[in-house]
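Much of our argument rests on the idea that a fold can be written as discrete symbols. This step matters because it turns folding into a mapping between discrete strings. The record that follows shows the chain in one-letter code together with its fold in token form.
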Amino acid sequence: MGFLAAFERTCRWVPEDGDGLEHLQVRVDADGVTATGVVIGARGGRPYGIRYRITCSADWRVRAFAVDDCEGGRLAMTSDGEGRWRDEAGAPMPAFDGAIDIDLSGSPFTNTLPIRRLAAHAPGHAERFRMVYIPFATLVPEIDEQRYTCVTPLSAYLYEAVDRSFEARLPVDDAAIVTDYPTLFRRRDV
């Protein structure tokens, strides 16, 4: 038994503080994962509007993503699924070698990517992930080290920043999509 293998779902999250909304549509089938979303909000007093698209292989490894902001900014990268990245023009980006996943700063959805691969491990099982982190304020990618621990298989996972600056217990639904992100987001199903 594990998370749903094939599904289509629409999810929405609202921030715990301030105004904002994320609207996500995700489709998973035998060919892989396609997620598209729109996020509006503010961080540090700066409002943002973001549109993103993430494509993953059937084993939930990011193969491509594009993030566009309302001011004309764009970041797009592709991956071989093994942690080797290229920019939109096809140039190698060795600074991100070893990162399988991405983390969009204002989206709970990207926590699903590593959680799907942890799946039904025993409680206490932890893995460290090297992420391509994309802050919405700049769209300048950077490396972020994160750890996920299985708390309750198929229903709860602990997220920790490796630098110990933040942690959260993340409950997930039957597709591994975060339902509540304490202190940051809560889901409102459509």
In short: The mean pLDDT is 94.
